[in-house]
Amino acid sequence: MSARNASERAYEYVQHRILDGTYAMGSKLVEDRLAREAGVSRTPIREALRRLAADGLVVVEPHCGARVASIARSELLEIYSLRAALESQVAARACLHMDYATLDKLEGLAEDMERLAGEGNGQELSAESVRCLIDLNGEFHGLLVERARSPWHAKSLFKLLQIPLMYRTIGMYTPQELARSQGHHREIIAAFVARDPEWAASTMRSHILAARATLLRAFGDRKRGDDLHAELGRVADPPLGHTDGLSWAEEDEPPTYGFPSVLPSGARSRSTGRAHDEGSRLRSLRRPERSAHRRASRAVARRR
C-alpha cells in the first residue's frame, strides 16, 4: 500500500467512526489502537488526525494527544443559523441548474427516507434505520450542493454539515418531527419542478430551522425565539431568486432546463401533499408527453 493510499485509508477510517458515533465526542483517540484497527502504521494515523483537526472533528492538544471535538451549545445553534442562510442559497441556485436526472435521484432518496421513517410505526427507530436515514439525508443535501455549482458554498458547508452527523440529530426526531422533515424534502422537490427558486429557498430555510428547533427540544431548551436571537445574533436572510447577481426577472428569457414554464396550481401550492402529487405525476410522464402537458398547463393559466 502506497503512503498516499495509507493516509487516505486512515483518514476515512477515523472520520467515518467519528461521524457514525463509534468514537463519541470528547473521547480520546489513541494512535496505536487506531493504527491496529485501520490496518496502517502510526504515521498515516498521525496525518489523518491533523487533517481531521483542520476539519474541526478532532482536537490535538500538546502532551495530551488527540480527542474527538466537542461543541458548545451556542456554537451548535449558530451553526444551524449559518446553515439556514447558506443552504437556502444553495437550494435557490440548485433550482436554476436542476435537470431531470437529478430530480429522479431526489425523488428516489425521498421515497427511501419515507419508507425508513415509516418503519418505526410511531415508535423509536432502530440504530440501523437511523444510520441509513443519515446517509440518505446527506446524499439528498449533497445533490443540491452539487447542482448549485458553487465551489464556495460547497467548501463553506463541508464542515457545517458534519456537525449534525456527530450529534446524530435524526435520532432525536419524534415521529411528527420526522414526518415534517420528509414533507420539507417533498416540497423542495416540488419547488424544483415548478422552477421556483424563492419557494425552494424558503422551504429549505424552514427545513433547517425546524431541525434547530428539534435540537432545542431534545436538549430541554424552551427559550423563546427572541431570546435565541439575542444570544446568537441575527443572520441575514439570503437574497432569494438571485444567483451571480442575475435574477430571472432581469433576463430576456427565463431558463427552461427542460421544465414546464407554467404548472397547474397544485404544483406551485405551498401545501406539501398537493405539490408532491403534481411533482410525482409530472415525473411519471413519458418525455414525448411532457410537451402536451406543458401546452395544457399554459392553456389553464391563460383561462385564469
Keywords:
three-stranded antiparallel β-sheet; 13 helices; 304 residues; 2 domains; Arc Repressor Mutant, subunit A; Four Helix Bundle (Hemerythrin (Met), subunit A); two-stranded antiparallel ribbon; mainly alpha
Explain the overall architecture:
The chain has 304 residues and is mainly α. The protein has two domains: 3-68, Winged helix-like DNA-binding domain superfamily/Winged helix DNA-binding domain (Arc Repressor Mutant, subunit A, Orthogonal Bundle); 73-251, GntR ligand-binding domain-like (Four Helix Bundle (Hemerythrin (Met), subunit A)), CATH 1.20.120.530. It is built from 13 helices and five strands. The strands form two sheets. It has a three-stranded antiparallel sheet. A hairpin with a 3-residue loop joins β2 and β3 (65-68). α4 packs antiparallel against α9 (197-218). Residues 221-294 have low confidence and may be disordered.
SSE diagram, text form:
Blueprint: H1 3-19, E1 28-29, H2 31-38, H3 42-55, E2 58-61, E3 65-68, H4 73-96, H5 100-118, H6 127-148, H7 151-167, H8 175-193, H9 197-218, H10 225-232, E4 242-243, E5 246-247, H11 265-268, H12 272-284, H13 287-303
Antiparallel strand pairs: 1-3, 2-3, 4-5
Helix pairs in contact: 1-3, 2-3, 4-6, 4-7, 4-8, 4-9, 5-6, 5-8, 6-7, 8-9, 8-12
CATH superfamily of the largest domain: GntR ligand-binding domain-like
Strand content: under 5%
Share of residues in helices? 55-70%
Q: How many structural domains in the coordinates?
A: 2
Biggest β-sheet: strands ordered side by side in the sheet: 1-3-2
Number of helices: 13
Report on the biggest sheet: 3 strands, antiparallel
Globally, the shape reads globular
Indicate the CATH class of the largest domain. Mainly Alpha
* Secondary-structure element pattern, one letter each: HEHHEEHHHHHHHEEHHH
| CATH architecture name of the largest domain | Up-down Bundle
